[in-house]
Amino acid sequence: MIALKGLTWDHPRAFQGLSSETARFNAAGHDIHLDWDRHSLRRFEEAPLAEIAADYDLVIFDHPFVGDAAVSGCLLDLVPCADKLGLSAIERDCPGPSYASYAYAGAQWALPIDAACQTAVCRPDLLSAWGEDVPATMEQVLALGKRHPLALALAVPHAFMNHLSLCGLMGADIAGNADRLVDIEMSAEAVTLQRRLIANAPPAAADWSSIGLLNAMARSESLAYAPLVFCFNTYSRPDRSLVGDRLAFCAPPRISAPTGGSVVGGAGLAISATSQNRDAALVALAHLMEAEAHRRMAIDGGQPGRRAAWNDAAADTANGGFFSATGRALELSRIRPRYAGYIGFQNAAGAFLRSAMVETDMSPRQVATGLNDLYLESLG
Question: Which fold has domain 2-115+266-324?
Answer without folding.
Answer: D-Maltodextrin-Binding Protein; domain 2 (3.40.190)
